[in-house]
Amino acid sequence: GSLSERCLMDMRLGELPMWLATCDFSPQGLLGGVQKAWSSYYNKYINVKRGGPAGISMLLAGYCLLSYGWNYQHISKISFLVSI
């Protein structure tokens, strides 16, 4: 895309002065930049997709590992008796 449409993090150091020259520093332009930054932050960190099979499977795997850790001594005694 054009230089004015790219984000600050996509700029190279040599392109920075040209990119700053294309920015709108009027109060209306600054307000638009703040709104764009807020909506980007909101969509990335707050308005994330929740649930789904991946989240549920991670929850079940964590529960299995936690239960195994809690019952390890009991399970190891039973497996020792079975192997005799």
TrEMBL record:
Give one Pfam hit by family name. Answer: WRW
Q: Ion transport among the record's keywords?
A: yes
Keywords linked to the UniProt accession:
ATP synthesis, CF(0), Hydrogen ion transport, Ion transport, Membrane, Mitochondrion, Transport
Q: Which InterPro entries match?
A: F1F0-ATPsyn_F_prd
Q: Which domain of life is it from?
A: Eukaryota
**Cellular compartments annotated:** Mitochondrion membrane
Q: Does the keyword Membrane apply?
A: yes
Instruction: Give GO terms: molecular function aspect only.
Output: proton-transporting ATP synthase activity, rotational mechanism
Q: Which cellular component appears as one GO term in the record?
A: mitochondrial membrane
Q: Which GO terms describe its biological process?
A: proton motive force-driven mitochondrial ATP synthesis
The UniProt similarity line reads: Belongs to the ATPase F chain family.
The name this protein goes by in its record: ATPK synthase
Organism (species):
Indicator maculatus (spotted honeyguide)
